[in-house]
Design goal:
Helix content is about 60%, strand content about 20%. It is an alpha+beta fold and about 100 residues long.
Length: about 100
């Protein structure tokens, strides 16, 4: 008599597991559909080319310049770029802002 009871409880647990698995599969499909809207937004950023390289950049803790015959010193962290690299970076920033 214990044999039929075992098979009955085994079938019941399969049915419960099957229902749970089906609900899980449906939930995953729903999440996939919901996140597809986020992919459209993320797709826009992939159209942006990579930022230009700036191998000539120098980082300093301050810099000085001459004004009216006297040296002026400015403290803080500064990034100095060669003209061409600065121009390429400026164009890239303008392109990124227009997207």
């Amino acid at each position: 008599m214990s044999g039929p009871r075992l098979s009955a409880s085994f079938n019941c647990s399969l049915k419960v597991f099957g229902t749970t698995a089906a609900k899980l599969a449906l939930a995953l499909c729903a999440l996939a559909l919901l996140t597809s809207g986020c992919n459209a937004v993320a797709g826009r950023t992939s159209a942006l080319p990579p930022a230009p390289a700036t191998p000539g950049a120098l980082v300093t803790d301050g810099w000085a310049y001459r004004e009216a015959g006297q040296w002026k010193t400015v403290t803080g962290e500064w990034v100095h770029l060669p003209d061409q690299e600065a121009g390429e970076l400026q164009l890239w920033i303008e392109q990124a802002e227009s997207i």
